[in-house]
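User: Structure please.
Assistant: Input sequence and predicted structure:
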Amino acid sequence: MDYVNGDGVTNNKHLAEAIDMTREGSAQPGSAGYDEPDSAGPGMTLRDSCFLVAIEELEEIQSAPQENQDQIDHVLQMLREARNANNERRARVMAEAHEILQDVWVPPT
């Protein structure tokens, strides 16, 4: 099964979800309620949720070729470091992560 997210298509559900979450998490600060308190549950904004899901999904990928795994590891580091930054920086990091993940290949799931 192919999963369509953003501008690309992948047949790996973990990568597809991470691509989708980084696209959503890159929304401009304050847009569509992404940064409203409790918008994704008690104590969590939608952008917080996007970070959490993207990190969890990328951690599930263990079968990528080394070059692609290196890119995934880099994105994971970026997301972890920016997770508690201000919303403007978090949106920029998510946009950068989204761009990187568009060029990553992992085997199908």
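The helical segments are 13-25, 46-59, 66-82, 87-101.
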